[in-house]
Amino acid sequence: MKWIFLWSYFSLAGIALLFNLLGLLNLYPLYVTAPTLFFVLFIPVYLINRQKRWK
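RE: above sequence
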């Protein structure tokens, strides 16, 4: 079950990275693509810090 979440996260991060590259090529607005990449990269950092805080 953990592998499913891990692979889905990596695929989501890859899609967000490609979406951000399209934003850098001015095909999509950068103010839309940059926050999506930020939140995708922020989620695991938040979850790891949250686990260490309460244990």
